[in-house]
Amino acid sequence: MGGGGNNGSIFSYETLVHAISGAAGSVVAMATFFPLDTVRSRLQLEENRVSKNTLATIRELAAKEGPITLYRGMVPVLQSLCASNFVYFYTFHGLKMLRNRQNQTAGNDLLVASIAGVINVLTTTPLWVVNTRLKMRGINQAQETNNNEYNTLYDGLIHILKYEGIAKLWAGTLPSLILVTNPAIQFMTYEAIKRRVIASLNGAQPPGWIFFAIGAMAKAIATALTYPLQLVQTQLRHGHKFQNLPPNAGTLQILFFILKKQGLAGLYKGMEAKLLQTVLTAALMFLAYEKISRLVFRILLHRPILR
Asked: What is the pLDDT of the chain when averaged over all its residues?
């Protein structure tokens, strides 16, 4: 993907353009569909909230807590997403350049995407821990009081480090590492389908809606396969409120507790909102990413993009 100098090196202009384009595309997409992410988080974390359809939940939250609640914590989420996708896209495309670009296969893409995912998780998990807490402020008074000490991403990082210890900043890391399979499956599927589409068009660039559709399809597959772990990850980051579980309960404890208490449906609570949000967000992200990177290469390199 992309064209640029220093082929064979992870530190290249081309890799930087992909990283910036991916980060910008993700911010545009998340800002557009942010209320859907709020609904997903509330359904995952609020044990007593009845799982309604996404539109009904949006209306209920807006009526009871005001429309602003749908956008609570958006700034730190966008900051974290920008940093996270910059790291992911930079690593993914940098590692792809180190491998033989003429021999790109689904297996190679899965390996590279998995490595990029691990690096991304280890470097950006603290950002997601803080913004999950900021976003969920107001769920109950106890949590709200605990979070009143900070209002920004930076202040949250310092507060948790000072009062809860460094380990809390990496809460949910284990399911996050397992969930590396989500973007890995997503990127593998996206790249594989895109290669086939471009080949069927004899190398011509497909229209924007094709990228949107491929991105949506890839994310739907990845989300459906990994959703229960995403639910547990959110519980770990926020701090679960299950009365019969210790505060330091691990991934498997929470997973089996939900399964025992709520059944299989409990592991998929909020998946409708999650699917809607992630599929639309991923589709728009890939569309924006392709358009932005193409524009930058065309303007600054004055030559067609190499695929």
From this structure: 81
